[in-house]
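Give me structure tokens for this 155-residue protein.
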Amino acid sequence: MSISQYSRPASLVPVLALLVACSAPVGAAPEVDAVSDAAPATNAAAPVSSGSIVGEWNPDPSLCADSRMTFTTDGRHEALMDDGDGWQVLAAGRYELDGRTLVIRFEGEVQEREVVSVDGEALVLRHDDAALAEVTGGYEVTLHRCPVRDGGPSA
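Here you go.
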């Protein structure tokens, strides 16, 4: 099932896209060690500092006022949405950063994403799952850092 098949507010779509990009497709077989020939090569660059991904992100920076994905200093990640009465946690999990490998634990699934690049404004994650690439439109997702919100952590 694709994201477009859901009837959701437009502000929720980026959070759904991010959750799809950071977790296995529904009904997918467990990940295997083999990498598809169509998948991009792994970057063997220097490790990423865990502090560099801490903050609040959205695939579409114009929607940061409505929805965000957070990575916290204590290893939590959350999908947040402002429902008009305040920020609500839609989903939560844990993450670890090992070198350039981001390990995300969400609803019993463990997924690995390569941190292609990260700076003060953008975080680019890559995966090697062909089925997921079909749903999300590619092997990479670019997340944009959201401005600090009232009551939110500073980056």
